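Input structure tokens:
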């Protein structure tokens, strides 16, 4: 089932008035949620490719994969590249997700092959041949159709003819996503678009972050220590990322994915500054999240318990700043009789916010 068909199906099955249960859920490093209006655009400037085989993967793909471009700026020739993977369970009834990778400007291939997607690289010594891919049985596509988007312009295989199109920030990149969606649907009711902030805050932002972290009393004193002559982090994940460079820059891979020749000279997993400019013009998205919460929209907040870039202690801190009422305190979460993490449920007014730590 093509992407346009999936969008139309979700619009038809979920009328506009059902705001409390939106059919189109967009997720990123920070969550994004959009509810479509009941009409699909017939003028979307999109080109697509149905991918049945991928170099490095043995045999036909066991899932439906579509890739393509959507033009978002006629003046600059900017086009965003996407991967659409259909739900492997029940495409007609399962939700439709949009995933935006942070960074800023990291390719969404990171999510497709390293996080929630149906593919993963085989970690083995590199011998000069094309890295191998295998199926990921724990993919979120087991229960949902997912639209992975290289956003903003300059991420992954997204490109523009005019260099000015690459000068973006939190707000302008959000507008690019909105334009992308409007090209696919005639109207989109946007509840909110949250982009990740920069990893290196200004002095003023540092003071704010330190104040927030102080709220996480039981986790504030966590620290890393080790021998001074040894690297502080394991290089296993870095090596996996190198495999993605070799794979994504292969000409056969580009042809299979339908990448337009000459648009991206070299695929780079993250084109954060100084590779490409990016303005951190949205210091915090907390107030936007709060405004959505008091309107009754549901939200799932999750963090990895070993994530040192976006630590769970920070997630706990900003959610606590809302003074939510705890409905279900921390408890063990099990899946198929295996420990999967900890979970708690908190509520603000008529909304429900569930914090899930994995």
């Amino acid at each position: 089932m093509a992407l346009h068909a999936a969008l139309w199906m979700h619009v038809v099955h979920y009328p506009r008035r059902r705001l409390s249960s939106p059919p189109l859920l967009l997720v990123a490093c920070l969550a994004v949620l959009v509810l479509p209006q009941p009409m699909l655009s017939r003028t979307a400037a999109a080109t697509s490719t149905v991918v049945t085989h991928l170099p490095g993967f043995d045999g036909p793909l066991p899932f439906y994969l579509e890739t393509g471009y959507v033009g978002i700026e006629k003046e600059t020739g900017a086009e965003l590249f996407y991967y659409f993977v259909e739900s492997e369970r029940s495409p007609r009834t399962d939700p439709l997700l949009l995933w935006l990778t942070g960074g800023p400007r990291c390719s969404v291939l990171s999510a497709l092959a390293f996080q929630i997607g149906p593919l993963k690289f085989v970690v083995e010594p590199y011998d000069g041949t094309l890295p191998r891919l295998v199926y990921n049985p724990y993919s979120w596509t087991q229960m949902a159709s997912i639209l992975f988007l290289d956003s903003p312009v300059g991420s992954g295989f997204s490109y523009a003819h005019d260099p000015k199109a690459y000068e973006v920030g939190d707000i302008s990149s959000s507008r690019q996503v909105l334009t992308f969606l409007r090209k696919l649907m005639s109207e989109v009711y946007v509840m909110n678009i949250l982009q990740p902030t920069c990893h290196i805050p200004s002095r003023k932002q540092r003071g704010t972050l330190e104040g927030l972290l102080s709220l996480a009393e039981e986790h504030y004193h966590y620290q890393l220590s080790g021998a001074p002559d040894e690297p502080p982090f394991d290089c296993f994940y870095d090596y996996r990322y190198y495999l993605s460079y070799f794979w994504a820059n292969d000409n056969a891979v580009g042809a299979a994915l339908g990448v337009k020749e000459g648009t991206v000279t070299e695929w780079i997993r993250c084109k954060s500054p100084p590779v490409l400019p990016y303005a951190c013009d949205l210091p915090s998205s907390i107030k936007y999240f709060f405004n959505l919460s008091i309107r009754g929209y549901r939200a799932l907040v999750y963090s990895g318990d070993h994530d040192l870039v976006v630590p769970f202690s920070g997630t706990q801190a900003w959610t606590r700043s809302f003074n939510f009422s705890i409905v279900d305190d921390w408890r063990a979460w099990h899946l198929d009789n295996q420990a999967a993490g900890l979970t708690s449920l908190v509520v603000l007014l008529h909304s429900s916010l569930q914090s899930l730590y994995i």
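The first strand starts at residue 24 and ends at 28. The chain has two domains: 3-284, 295-358.
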